[in-house]
Amino acid sequence: QVQLVESGGGLVQAGDSLRLACAASEDTLTNYRMGWFRQAPGKEREFVAAVNWNGGNILYADSVQGRFTISKDNAKNTVYLQMNSLKPDDTAVYSCAARVLGTTQYRYWGQGTQVTVSS
Q1: What is the pLDDT of residues 5-56, one digit of tens each?
Q2: Which end of the chain is less packed: N or C, by CB atoms within 10 Å?
Q3: In the prediction, which pLDDT does 30 show?
């Protein structure tokens, strides 16, 4: 059972930056893919970014490409999402998730952290 805890959300102005963190309970996640998702009010959850725990296969949604960066710290069992040039449309609850490589469903989810970007 992998437990994920997000932190780092908050209220910022357009153009500002935030860094979200997702701390994982497991010491060994080498066979996992870690993803960030977001859900805005009244909208479906959407994919933001993902990375394999070994660092490979980084993928971003078109809407955040060039502004957001996903990274990880193996020593801290933590995945980060650096968000720059934030826009009001980035306002959402951001959640991290983990799935076993070779599967399609993200099995483990964090509770989410609110990001609000004012204009």
Answers
A1: 999 999 999 999 999 999 999 767 889 999 999 999 999 999 999 999 888 8
A2: N
A3: 85
Structure tokens at 74: 């193996």
pLDDT score for 40: 97
Give CA angle at 51 (83, 80), nearest 5°. 35
CA dihedral 57, 62, 67, 69 (to 10 degrees): -20
pLDDT in the model for residue 38: 98
User: Rounded to an integer, what distance in angstroms lies between the CA atom of residue 44 and that of residue 54?
Assistant: 29
Three-class secondary structure of residue 113 per DSSP: strand
Shortest CA distance to 19 belongs to which of 81, 73, 71?
A: 81
Residue 84: exposure state from Cβ atoms within 10 A (0-12, 13-18, ≥19): middle
- Are the C-beta atoms of 19 and 36 separated by less than 8 Å? no
Cross-strand partners of 108? 98
